[in-house]
Amino acid sequence: MTDLTVEVYDTTLRDGAQQEGMNLSVADKMAIAPLLDELGVGVIEGGWPGAVPKDTEFFALAGKELTFRHAQLAAFGMTRRAGATAAADPQVRALLDSEAPIITLVCKADIRHAERALRVSPDENLAMIEETFAFLTGEGRRVIMDAEHFFDGYRHDAEYSLRTLQAAVAGGADVLCLCDTNGGMLPDDVSEIVAAVGQRLDTPLGMHAHNDSGCAVANSMAAVAAGATHVQGCVNGYGERTGNADLVAVVANLEIKRGIVALKGDGLVESTRIAHAISEITNIAPFARQPYVGASAFAHKAGLHASAIRVDPDLYQHTQPEKVGNGLRMLVSDMAGRASIELKGKELGFDLAGQNELLGRVTDRVKHAEAAGYTFDAADASFELLLRSELGENPAFWDVETWRVRVASKPGDPTDADAEAVVKMRAGGERMVAVGEGNGPVNALDHALRTALAGVYPEIEEFELTDFKVRIMEASHGTDAVTRVLITTVHQETGELWRTVGVGPNVIEASWEALADSLVYGLLKAGIDRR
Ligand SMILES: CC(=O)SCCNC(=O)CCNC(=O)[C@H](O)C(C)(C)COP(=O)(O)OP(=O)(O)OC[C@H]1O[C@@H](n2cnc3c(N)ncnc32)[C@H](O)[C@@H]1OP(=O)(O)O
Ligand SMILES: CC(=O)C(=O)O
Question: What is the pTM for the complete model shown?
Answer without folding.
Answer: 0.87
